Amino acid sequence: MTVGRTLLKSLLAAALLAAGLQASQADEWRTTSSLIGESKYGDNFQHYDYVNPNAPKGGTLNSVLLGTFDSFNPYVVQGSPAAGLVAFGGGLLYDTLMEQATDEGSTSHPLIADAYKYPADYSSATYRLDPRAKWHDGQPITVDDVIWSFQVLKANSPQYSRYFENVTEAVAVSDREVEFHFNQKGNRELPKIIGDLAVLPKHWWEGTDANGKKRDVTKPTLEIPLGSAAYKIASFKPGSEIIWQRVPDYWAAKLPVKIGRENFDTRRYTYILDDNAAWLAFTKGGLEDINREYSSRKWATAYNFPAFQAGDVVKKDFQTHAPQAMQGFVLNQRRPLFQDRLVREALTIPFDFESMNRTLFFGFNTRTSSYFQGTELASSGLPQGKELEILEKYRDKLPPELFTQEFKLPVYDSPQAERKYLKQAVDLFAKAGWVIKGGKMVNAKTGAPFRFEILGWNDTDQVIASPYIANLRKIGVDATLRIIDQTQYINRVNNFDFDVVTGIFQQSDSPGNEQRDFWTSKAADAPGSRNLMGIKDPIIDALVDRIIFATDRDDLVAATHALDRILLWNFYVVPQYYRSAVWLAYWDKFGFPDKQPAYVGADIDSWWIDPDKEKALAAKYKGGN
């Protein structure tokens, strides 16, 4: 009997180890969670190793945003949420059960929950609340708040709905413990990502406002909500300004994830409608203290204004090792024009990245060639091993080139390249039933022109789109660019009302349940989802499930390679480029640790205001900074 128990225990331990766990980890309370190995901090996590634990508090961080806002409820599709509020996570207002690490991928540390556990079959997860957690009104954060938040967010938030698709219910185990039940076993990621749940105050949302009207969490609102995080809304001007104030008695200020961080007393956001006006606001000071630069042209040529030349504005390059997002022109398959894969491939070829990088981007950028760029999850070469085994099941329904050719985008590296590639595009159009007549690409049967609109909202959209449009016109494709205001743009994208937009698909180094929101058939019909291209493919649906229920890291990598390869060979987007650096220009009023987290590049929350520098700048620029 003893031998039998020992053997059973050994077999269980082996199975758990294959799944990426130690036997002792199953169904035992854990603090830090990670999907890619143990956190570097272990159980003795005091604070992030890059922060200044004695960073001074105080001062104001000024920021500018484009557009406007009309809601303090970011979890519903309607409305434009104010700065500081986010559709996924807690933003500045709400704490989550656990907080995602800034310096390690797929790792979380305690926040509202001080520990969690789950059984060996991943059929549930139990979170234990920190008894110190409280709302800004002093009331404790309770298990009822957690259960209510789960129900509300799953019912009303497009992202949480698909993220927690396999979570059926949350039930109280005790006054400190809440258990989440799953409808399938083997979802290795799910126990950990329950920690991403934003917890909302049930008693506030189910109460009444100053006029005695019952609040409705399913609708936008401009009533300042009750929160729990390090900041609360101090004041606002509808659509134009919002000011956040640091909470002096914030309950979590001494937790490891908070020490040395969230140092600004005030965070002021000013909305500006015009991109050029926002740039001028930064150069003059007072409204924008830190400018995250995305434009290669500006980074190389525009930092010559007086404050920069005087040394009062500094620009710095922060390298990042996080996965790089797939950025590209999304071809909306809800439009019949883009439903043919040959057409989508033909539209990919005229994007001349090399000329753009040389003439517009000063050589700073690299062509994106994977949806999981910069990680071991990116496909390469030809499929082999376990990835090939996965793909073989669907061989007769996949592009045959996927098995015989390495996926490669055109390289415009010579004067002859343009002629060669544009001819390839014309040939692909011909196979799809489109021909050039009178200099126009038209349908061979109906004579209808091939015409579409690229939707954008800022100057960068014009910079990227113009050379692409020019090349398309060389083969008779009538593409145009339409720039609209940001609020209208967001609403149209949320409702998939576009032909083509630039999409940015950010991945982690441990993909899982969020993949449903990117690629699945169900997400294609859900307003606000990230399936912008409208993919409805049962093979991709099956691969997403394969990723979510991967048995171990090797299985996850193989399934993700397969998904990446299918996405690429179906040409759902025209890939653009990435840059493995965060560019920040800032008024020299800050102190910050020399070491910044390489995973995200820079953690602004670890910066602080130097009062002497701030005072000197204010005097020099007459109250500007």
UniProtKB/TrEMBL annotation:
A GO term for molecular function: peptide transmembrane transporter activity
Primary location group: periplasm
Domain of life: Bacteria
Pfam families for this protein: SBP_bac_5
GO CC list: ATP-binding cassette (ABC) transporter complex; outer membrane-bounded periplasmic space
Subcellular compartments: Periplasm
Gene3D superfamilies: Dipeptide-binding Protein, Domain 3, Periplasmic binding protein-like II
Signal peptide interval: 1-26
Keywords: Signal
Keyword Nucleus on entry: no
Solute-binding protein family domain: residues covered: 109-523
GO biological-process terms attached to the record: microcin transport; peptide transport
Protein family per UniProt: Belongs to the bacterial solute-binding protein 5 family.
Protein name from the UniProt record: Microcin C transport system substrate-binding protein
Organism for this UniProt entry: Mesorhizobium sangaii
